[in-house]
Structure formats: structure tokens, C-alpha cells
Design brief:
The protein is of the alpha+beta class and 139 residues long. The chain is built from 2 helices and 7 strands. The protein has a 5-stranded mixed beta barrel.
Amino acid sequence: MIRRTVFPRHHRLPVTPVQAAGVILIILAAFLSYGGLRSSIRPYTTHIDEAVDSGRSVQLVGFLGSTGMYDAQGRFTFVLEDETGRRVTVVSREPKPSHFELATSIVVIGRYDDEQNLFVADQVLVKCPSKYHEQEVAR
């Protein structure tokens, strides 16, 4: 016959207020860390529709749809085209990036503004053909 040892209820280890506060602080820190991490990560998309529907800051990749110009407020504006052919006007407070016209693709980081019906970019990054590509050697 196997004997079981049953502990009476009064032998449970009590949780002190300091331990309870520590557990609560750990849970709170984990929750806040998750929220901060989630808001700092920007999804990467190649479709304007996804950027519009997301309602949050994204990295949108596309192609140059216009050469760009400065508007009356001094903002740099241009048209970005995605791989489906959809176009959106992009507005940036940053100056026009160097080699902008030579870009093979453009990444704009920001969010779509429904009221203004345009994409407000915090950053505009251009991918240009590398100056380090091998040049053909004349024979």
C-alpha cells in the first residue's frame, strides 16, 4: 500500500506584499515592452492599398512616378507608383535626396493621411544603381 502525504492548508507558503508587487511590476514591464516594440516596428509593403488600409506607419516600396517638386509650404512632393501601377502622392519635409532621378526604387517611411489623400513621409530612401558595378572594358 502506497502512503500519501497530504499537507494541511496552513502549510502553504504565504505571498508577501513585496513578492506580489514584484510580480505585478514584471507583468507591467512585459506589457509596456510589448506595446513599445509593436509601435516601433514598421511593416514593409510593396502595395499602396496595404499602406492605406494599415492606418499606421509603414515602409512603402515603389518606383518613381514623377521627378518631384517643392510645394508652397516648402515640402518635397512626388508621385510613387507600386508594382500594381497604383500611384500615390508623397509629401516629405526632408529635402530631395541626392540622385533621386536615378533611383531604381524608392522606400518611403511614414503613413497615409486620409484627410489630405496623400502619403506623409518621415524618410525617403532611394536605391540607385551602384557606382561600383563593373564597367565594360573597351577592347
